[in-house]
Write a structure and sequence with these properties.
Length: 311
């Protein structure tokens, strides 16, 4: 079978690996210049900073088995455990996505723009070409997925799931800007701040790079404002943690669809009567212990949808 996957984030990569392992042909279509999606790391000067997922946790057996293997390969390690382990990728979260996607066929810089079904095949029009597959998996955040599926009928409840944005400020310091004992502070912060991370203390870089994650309400309230003003306000809030240490450079990352505010309680969705499947972090397996979208829900969704697509 020839399978197309829109989106080379964690769920798309995991699904692709699984179907390839079972002898099918897979192509991923990814609009960005790299795989990983929200497993995102930015190069800044001589260093790098995570600006998507900060760490991941493990609750289920499926991810647990795989993580033990990743630890043995030296791809991930425990950052801190308080009270349960927070895993990070040793070279930044994006490097883990690249390692997992190694060997897969990925069409980068290619945006899927329209989806149709013709004579039982799925036809995808992208901004580069037209591609045809026996089955299609779409793993983009739901609002983007549903735009692609405007001509298809999907359950109304799926269209009602909403996402919150997140701003992340990235700051390069000229001198030490230690953040707590492990490089993370996520309590007793000024209103608006969610997490402040020092990427050097986290162990992914040698330079003093701090990632500042703003909470949902703040990000929503500031979403319409200019980047410069937003970054300035994040810097002001950061000073409540770092004091007056001097900043050499700063950047802003704007995630329109960072986290879903609600979830779908099935690990994937199959469009009635069509060879089209939806997966991603918003699709949780039944009885999910956390009930939240996260690294693990994207991973588990990828595994489940792969099994369904190849049967
Ligand atoms: C700021 C932030 C902090 C987070 N922190 C944590 C954390 O600490 N712990 C944790 O467990 N999780 C965290 N998460 C969530 C975690 O990153 C996600 O749950 C997970 O990475 C989602 O993977 P996914 O494959 O479902 O989606 P994505 O990673 O979003 O992948 C979807 C892919 O589809 C691509 N795409 C979209 N539209 C198209 C199109 N039309 N054509 C082609 N490609 C397209 C996108 O570019 C993207 O690469 C965080 C997320 C953000 C944004």
């Amino acid at each position: 079978m020839n399978i197309g996957i829109i989106g080379a984030g964690l769920s798309g990569i995991i699904a692709a690996r699984e179907v390839v392992r079972h002898g099918h042909t897979v192509e991923l279509i990814e609009k960005s210049q790299s795989v990983g999606g929200r497993l995102a790391t930015r190069r800044i000067g001589d260093g790098k900073a995570d600006h998507g997922a900060v760490y991941f946790t493990v609750r289920g057996e499926a991810l647990n088995r795989e993580v033990n293997d990743w630890v043995e390969r030296g791809w991930v390690r425990i950052w801190y455990a308080d009270p349960y382990p927070r895993y990070i990728a040793v070279d930044g979260m994006n490097a883990l996505a690249k390692r997992l996607g190694d060997g897969l066929t990925v069409h980068l810089h290619e945006r899927a723009e329209a989806v149709a079904v013709e004579n039982g095949k799925v036809v995808i029009k992208t901004d580069v070409t037209t591609r045809q597959y026996d089955r299609l998996l779409i793993t983009s955040p739901l609002p983007q997925t549903l735009e692609l599926l405007a001509d298809f009928s999907v359950e109304a409840a799926l269209r009602e799931l909403t996402y919150a944005p997140t701003f992340v400020g990235l700051f390069e310091f000229t001198s030490e800007a230690a953040i707590g004992s492990d490089g993370i502070v996520d309590t007793e912060l000024a209103p608006g701040l969610l997490k402040v991370i020092n990427n050097r203390q986290k162990g992914i870089t040698a330079t003093e790079l701090v990632s500042v994650y703003m909470d949902e309400a703040w990000s929503e309230a500031w979403y319409g404002r200019p980047d410069e003003e937003t970054l300035q306000e994040i810097e002001r809030l950061l000073a409540t943690v770092t004091g007056t240490a001097s900043i050499q450079s700063k950047q802003l990352k704007r995630w329109r669809y960072a986290q879903a505010t609600d979830v779908w309680n099935e690990p994937f969705y199959h469009l009635d009567g069509h060879p089209i499947y939806l997966a991603g972090d918003v699709f949780l397996e039944r009885g999910d212990a956390s009930g939240r979208t996260r690294f693990e829900s994207a991973y588990v969704s990828g595994l489940h949808v792969a099994e369904a697509m190849r049967s």
